[in-house]
Amino acid sequence: MKRVFSGMRPTGRLHYGHMAGALTNWLALQETHECYYSIVDWHALMSDYADPSNLAEHVTDALLDWLAVGLDPNKCAIFIQSRVKEHIELHMALSMIAPLGWLERNPTYKEQILNLQNKDLSTYGFLGYPVLMAADILLYKSNQVPVGEDQTAHLEISRELARRFNNFYGEVFPEPEMLLTRYPKIPGTDGRKMSKSYGNALEIADEMPVIDKKIRTMMTDPARERRTDPGEPNKCPVWDLHKFFNPDKEEMNELAEGCRTAGIGCIDCKKKLIAHVAVNMAPVHERRKYFEARAGELNDILNEGARKARARASETMEEVCRAVGMTRAGA
Known about the structure:
Layout: E1 3-8, H1 16-32, E2 34-39, H2 41-48, H3 55-69, E3 76-80, H4 86-95, H5 100-104, H6 107-115, H7 124-127, H8 129-138, E4 144-147, H9 152-169, E5 177-180, H10 208-216, H11 237-245, H12 249-260, H13 266-292, H14 295-323
Parallel strand pairs: 1-2, 2-3, 4-5
């Protein structure tokens, strides 16, 4: 059985973009792979180190959303990164061999420096983010890593660090393969990438009255200024949500034709979408409420997940220490 690692930074409640872009993929993988899914709280300090006051709340929100969409702790290890100290051990080992130029040339690093000018990002933690990400992945000797398109550069650094370590110290790490999600991007209500910071997110925890209101005010194809104007579904954020939530191909064809011929209005299209979202999200909301009322069960899930992760991670670190000529404490 192939092994998978993936993680998410706890930065608040998750939204439909997370569900479409990552979590649906994780659900499928837990049926066929040995999966390790981590709430990567050390990564959360990458840009929010100055104010970690909401970190614990965000960790709980991430866990609730994961369980709500259907992640099963009996089929995968669900844990908090900081509870498995081997992540930091391997991060230290990899940081010793990570060329500075690789990190400085990382396109995501340059992009976020420009986009997050309201925060001081002149730290090693921010520059070295891909090294910690590589440690997360390689610690479990992951064969495959489900990622979005925006993470491909980071994963390539993970592969390069695995090769570099193996060249210095002998074959220890497999080079993880990339698994791109089927739905890489879900737009927000304003047509931009869905993001809580943009205020355009449809959150997993949102009840249907909230979702109904948000969808009804969504931006559509700009060409449809009037009801009689024809449009193009592929230019419409509502259509992207239909592609994720609407399984009825015949209805999808009718909606596309109606849009292109102005046979239906945008409100009609949104009403159809709302109906499909309600059906899909009903069991998600039910599971979230179930786990919200069971704090003890949440702790048990995290403790058991950390136990499973530590067992695998400890084996890897024993091998790493032998490779670099060290004796690991407690060995």
